[in-house]
Each structure stands twice: as C-alpha cells, then as structure tokens.
Amino acid sequence: MRLRPAVVATIALLALAPGAAGAEVRIESFRLPAGAHPHDVAPAPDGGVWYTAQHQGALGRLDPATGEVRQIPLGEGSAPHGVIVGPDGAPWITDGGLNAIVRVDPRSLAVTRYPLPKDTGYANLNTAAFDRAGRLWFTGQGGYYGRLDPASGEVRVFKAPRGRGPYGIAATPEGEVYYASLAGSHIARIDLETGGASVIEPPTPGQGARRVWADSKGRVWVSEWNSGQVSVFEPGSGAWRSWKLPGERPRAYAVYVDETDTVWLSDFAANAILRFDPESGRFEVFPSPRPGAGVRQILGRAGEVWAPESGTDHLVVYRTK
Prior knowledge:
Oligomer: single chain
Order of helices and strands: EEEEEEEEEEEEEEEEEEEEEEEEEEEEEE
C-alpha cells in the first residue's frame, strides 16, 4: 500500500536556554494513514524512516523529503511492536501478533519470518537490539527474552529470572546488552554467551523500569513509568542517580540518548517530549499540539530525534542541527 498524505508543516522553531544541548530545535510532523497506531520508529541509512503500524499489521516507511508513505503487510494476525535497523541495513521487527521476529528486505520488500519455538507459547514480543556479533536479542513481556542468529536462523528463548515484564532492551558501546522489566521493576544484564540474565535493582522500589538506552560512556539510562523518573546506572561502579521529571505525576515511557549524550524522554502525563541535560540536571519540555500523542518509543540519527505519536497517527522529528 502506497500513500502520500499531507505533510504537516514545521510546528515550531524554539530558541533554547543557555546551557542547553543546542541552540535551537526545529520540530516537524508527518501525518500517517488513519488507524496505523505507530508504535516504534527507526530511521534508515538511506534517509527514510521505518515505523510499525501496529493496528494495521504492517511495516511503514516514510520519505521525509516528500511525505510519501508506503506500508508493507506483514501477514495475517500481525501486530508489530518494535522495529530497529540491523547491521545489514534492513528493518527487523518484533511482532507480538505473529509471535515472531520479522525481517523486511529494504529493496525488494520481501518479508521473512522467524517464529519463536512452538513450545514457547505467547511471548508478547516487545523490542530488540543487536550485539557486536550481529545477533538480535529481544524481549517479551510474558516473561521471556531471546536471541536470533541471522546467519543460521536459529531462535532461542530464555525464561526471564523473575517472570513477567521484559520490555525495553539496548546494547552498550562495549557490546553489553541490558533489558528493562516493567512488571518486575528492575533491569538485567544478559550474558551473551550463556544466555543467562543477572538482575540489577534500581534504588527506587516499584519504579516500573520501562525502556533502557546506553550513552557513549556505557552508562545505562532507564525511563521509570511508575516513579516518573529517569535514572542512570554506572556498570563500572554499580552506582545509580535519579531525577524526577517536571510536573505533576509524570509518566516516563520512552528514553533515548543522542550522539551528544543528551537524554530524550516521553512523558504521557505532560503529553510531551522532554530533553534532559545530565550535566545541569535541566529538563526542556516540548508539548505536542495534539492531545493524546502517546509517544511509546524514541530513536534517532545524527541531528535528528524521531518520535511516533501512536495516539495521533503522526511521526515527529526534532532536528537539533
């Protein structure tokens, strides 16, 4: 399916306060097909942007230069959650409806599915990350995490040490892989050879760790849904630091660290994207002009931070150059 919806013009040009990560941020929004419910987004090497159209069982591709959108059906029963671009330049999808990892060839658009082992049951697949060996690690909120070796096609699934909850997952520059457990309120480090996972307890009980991302120093940033905090874990020392998001009863959903080590978050309570400077402890708030934006994930490339508004069927880019 190929569509060319209207491109919503740049919303705002904001001059930022001294000490912020950049001089200005330009915000541009792109309208997607109605009912797509974009859950995750992944900028592509060729300048395009992939997204999961969760409610339409498809992978979408936006051309930001023209506003053109194309959606590729992933199969009957599909309900894609996460998407990332792999070392091969292709989008890789965690599809909860298919209970499978899915790859789409970026040129031919051919769809390849890697089902979870039949004895796994329903994993409620969430997100994925590649390690340095080119293996894809993934999470399932049903109490699982797993590994796909693209070279052999082998899929292995492991039971999470504390059951339900594995959600966000990320790799560090050193090659370590960590996941966040929303229901379990912890993060965990995966042993890439044995597949075992070691639980790491954040200092705030019941915080609801939802997503994780690593900065250039290998520190692991955590968005905490229940506590409304952003926290950072130092693997070398085991130390933690935490900051409360501004406003009343914040709900920190997504976290992403850009190439300048600036931290970006989504706050459901504020209906906004936040930019956080770890050096000053300062938050900047960029509210969506559309009610109920529901940004569930953030990803970017140099000079661009992309956010899918699942509640409004828009993709939004925050340009920092």
